[in-house]
Structure formats: structure tokens, C-alpha cells
Amino acid sequence: MKLRETSSGRQFDVEVTSAGPVLQAQLDRAEAKLPTQPLADGAILIDCGGRRVRAFAARLGQSIVVSIGPQPFTFVELKAERRGARHGLATPLVTAPMPGKVLSIMVGEGDQVAAGQPLITMEAMKMETTLSAEGPAQVKRIAVSAGQMVEAGAVLMELSPLDSTRPQSDR
To answer: What pTM value is reported for the model?
Structure first.
């Protein structure tokens, strides 16, 4: 995921290439591999050259707010340039961006959803996050229920891309 930081007055680009026990990212083209440790409240501890820093991230609308120690940063996702009329899904799985509680599920299995349509609302650290469809799809499977606690990366829902070559009436 490619992101641009916009809140600190100094713009920089970040590309997160891997998360988990080791966070791999590029910050303005400088490669970083940082060991992490998840915390019970949804935050993580990041080991930055022997110094441990607490970090937390939450999606707010079209932005991602990341708090590293006492410093907050706001990121926006850089959209890849689209060539042609591609409308597929980057991934068929909707996963939890952080540990938290599923508050509501706005769709049912078999429903067709549009790009940007809200799917699931979660709560982590008293902040609500709504996960939306990234492209037109059909809900294949819902793996959680409202009120359920989930870990970061847990599969919440599975989507199937809609076949854009078939007429609407055949769907």
C-alpha cells in the first residue's frame, strides 16, 4: 500500500510492503525492516534500532491516522494510475486492519456491492472504522458476526469480483 503523509508540513511517501512480526516499508525510497510486537489494546511496539516506540493506526474516512509515540501523522492512500477500464478486486478478502470488535455488518451473503460501499464497521480503542468494498463485487462469505472480537489480519468477509462482461440482468 502506497501512502503520502500530509499533516506534518513535510510531505513524504511511505510504501508498506509487509506487516506482521517485521514491518517492512520504504520511506522516501529508504528501506526499513522493523521488528514489531502487538499489544492487547490494538497498538504495536516497533523496535527502531534498540528504541521501542508505541504506534497505533486507524482509518478515518479516506485517511489513515498513525500515532507514533506522541506524534500523530495523517496519510492518504496514493491510487495507482488505472489503465483501461479495470474494475476488479485487488484482494477478495476483507481483513481486520487491527484487533477490535465488529460493531455492525451492513451486507449479507450473496449481496452485490458497489465500489466504496460500506461493508463492516469495527471499533478499536474507542474509534470506529468502516471497511468498504474496493470494487464491484458479490459477498461470497461473511466470517464474523456483530459483537465478535477479532485479531489484526482476521478474515472478516470474502468477496467475488463481478464479471463485467456479463449483462446486468444475468447477475
So the answer is: 0.47
Tell me the residue range of the domain where 126 lies.
93-170
Q: Give the E-state strand segments of the chain in sequence order.
A: 2-5, 12-18, 22-27, 30-38, 44-48, 51-60, 63-68, 71-77, 93-95, 100-105, 112-113, 118-124, 127-132, 137-142, 149-150, 155-161
Contact partners, residue 26, CB within 8 Å, separation at least 6? 13, 14, 15, 17, 32
Sequence-ordered list of residues with C-beta below 8 angstroms from that of 19, at least 6 positions apart, any chain: 36, 153
pLDDT in tens, 86-110: 445 556 788 887 788 999 999 999 9
Quick check: is 87 in a domain?
no
C-beta neighbour count of 131 within 10 angstroms: 19
Same domain, 123 and 65: no
Identify whether 86 is part of a domain.
no
16 in Cβ contact with 1 (< 8 Å): yes
- In terms of Cβ atoms closer than 10 Å to its own Cβ (0-12, 13-18, 19+), residue 168 is exposed
